[in-house]
Amino acid sequence: MKTFKQVFGTSLLLVFMTGLIGGCGGGDGDDSGIDPDSWPAFVLPNMEVAQERYMTFTGAQGSPFITTSGPLAGLSSSAPPVLVIELNYVVEALERVNSPDSYARYVGIYCGDYACTGIDVAAGAQAAGMQYAEYGIYSLNMIGTGFYDFGAFSGGNNSLTPTDSMPSGITKVYVGKALGEVAIVDPSRDYELTGSVSVSVNFPEHKMQINLSSMQARDNYDGTVTEFNDVQMDLTISGYQCSGVNVSWMSNSNSAAALAPGATGQADCDFYGSTAEEVAGVLHLIDIHGNAAIIAFGAK
Fold this sequence. Notes:
The chain is an all-beta fold and 300 residues long.
């Protein structure tokens, strides 16, 4: 996955109302005959992005730079139920592509005055069997520039759990999947992450724990697969929202794609469904060397 960086003072705005923006794609057009109306929450009109991480990375310019709001921020509920990419140019529609895994993947390209920009998307709700929330990753690649932008997102379509409907007297374990990107500074390399997530929630104490496991990293250059760290983070719950900065445990790994021990981070998520049937969110991690990862997850 190679991505686009803002250049020449021109900003890229991604208005994302079908929930599509994430990941890495490839392959031929999808001829599966899937009815778009049967797809999960991300295809619904007026989808709202609740959480986002945005990472700009190029080995020539040092460590990855992460912000908590990226191109998906500031969405309007009046926007049309299509992916709109605005750089003062006309944009071709994204095309669904065949994928060797169970994630929904899309690719697109548009060309402006300076360069052509490739768009890769991976969305996870379908793979996790979710109905109320969507999560995923995206990449933007200004072809031939060496600038890479990655994003992770989660959201829903008017499906956040009402605060007064949140469970209060139970504990629950949610199980699902995670998608992400990790950028390694030296040697300069980036990898797509896939893995499993479990979220253990103690509603009476307003506490929860995210556990990422079996995390695999696929090199975006040559396709080789190696391992990424397993990660555990502790969060607190307020209403339908959850957040935390405590990386309580991380596995050690000598993999070229792994982060060094002691990485810091932050996670933010939300509950979805009438009685918190699902949870989805994003997190980021940064180690002492400046290597960084952004990850989106969803579980039910």
